[in-house]
Design goal:
Elements: H1 2-17, E1 24-25, E2 28-32, E3 35-38, E4 43-44, E5 47-57, E6 60-61, E7 65-74, E8 82-91, E9 99-108, E10 111-112, E11 115-124, E12 127-128, E13 132-141, E14 144-145, E15 149-158, E16 163-164, E17 168-172, H2 178-181, E18 187-191, H3 199-227, H4 231-241, H5 243-307, H6 312-326, H7 331-352
Parallel strand pairs: 2-5, 3-5, 4-6, 5-7, 7-8, 8-9, 9-11, 10-12, 11-13, 12-14, 13-15, 14-16, 15-17, 17-18
Antiparallel strand pairs: 1-2
Amino acid sequence: MKIFKTLGISLFLALVLLGVGTQSAEAADFVGDEDYTLPAGETLNDDLYVSGSTILIDGDINGDLFAAGQTVTVNGKVNGNVFAGGATLTINGDISGDLFASGGTIAFTGTADDARVVGGQISILGDLVGDLMTAGGTIKLDGVVGGDAYIGTEVLNIEEGAKIVGDLNYATPDADGQAERATDGIVNFFEDESVAPTTGSLIGAWFTKTILAVIGYVLLTWLLIRFMPGFLPRHDVTLNNDLGKSAGYGIAAFFLLPGVIFVVTIIMGLLFGFGGAMAVALTGFSGLALIYLLSPIVIAHWLGTQFTDMGMTGILVAVGVAAILITLPLVGGIFSLISYVLALGSRLVIGSGDQDNTKFNDPIDPIKPSATVA
C-alpha cells in the first residue's frame, strides 16, 4: 500500500540523517555541531543539512531542510521540504513543501503540504494542504487535513478541532466513533482483531523463530565455507592479530560511514543526477546491510576457532549459539551491535592492507581451529 511505502521511505531518510557529518559544498550547507541554531531574523538561501544533539531553526530557509538530532525544533519558515529525525521533534514553522519526520515524540503545529510521519507519540495540531500519512504508538489529531488521511496506531485521539476534507483510512485496535465525525469523505476502518498472546504462544513463537534462525545461520555459514573458503578465516586472523584496531575502525565506521555515504550520494546527485546518486546510495547501504547480516557468523566463526577443538562441528555449534543469542530480548541487540562493529572494523582492516604481520597468500583451512598464515 502507498502509506506503508511512503512511511518506510520517511523512516529510512530519518535514519540516514543520523549519520550526517561535517562538510560544506557550494550547492548546500552541511553542518555538524553539538548544538546548532539558525537565529531568528536570518535567512539561509540554500539547502541545509545539519546534525547535532540540539538543533534550533528560528530563522528562515529558502531551500530544503535535513535535520537529525536528539532534539529538533523548527520555528522558522522553510520554503521547501523538511526531513527531520530525532528523539524529540517540534515543528512549529510553516513549510511550503512536504514534511517527512521520524522520531520518538513528534509535535506538528505549523503548516505544510503533505506530511509523512512515523513515531512513538505523534501530535498533528497544524494544518495540511494535502495528505497525512502517519503511523505510531499514540496519535493525536487536532488540525485540518486538506486531502486524505492514512493513519495506523495503537491509540488514536481525534479532537473536536480535527477536520479531514478528504477520505479517512485508519487502523487501530479500538475505535470510538470520533474519527468518522471528523470527515465528510469515505471512511475505511481496518480493525485490529488480534487478541493478547498467551505465555504458551509467546514461547512457541520464540522457539519457532529461534529454530529458523539457527537453521538459516548454520546453512549460510556452511555455504560461505564451501564456496568462499578464505572469507571467514581472513576475519579470524585479523581479529586475532588486530582486535583493538578492528574495534577502533568499527566504532569509527559505525558513526561515520552512513554520513559519508549520504554526503557522497548528494554530491553524485549534483554531478550526475538521480541515477548516480541512487547507484552510490544502493551500493553503500547494501554493503553495510550485508556486513550486518553476516557479522554474527563472522564473530561466531572466530570464537568457534578460539574455544573449541571440534573442527567444523564446533564452528557450526558456535554459529548456532550466536543465532539463539540474536533472538533474545536486549541480549540479542547488544550481541548484534558488538558483532557488527567488530566485523565492520575487521573488514576495513583487511581492505586497507593494514594488518599486523598478516599476509593472505594462501587460503586458510576453515576446519582447523588454530589456523595461521605463513
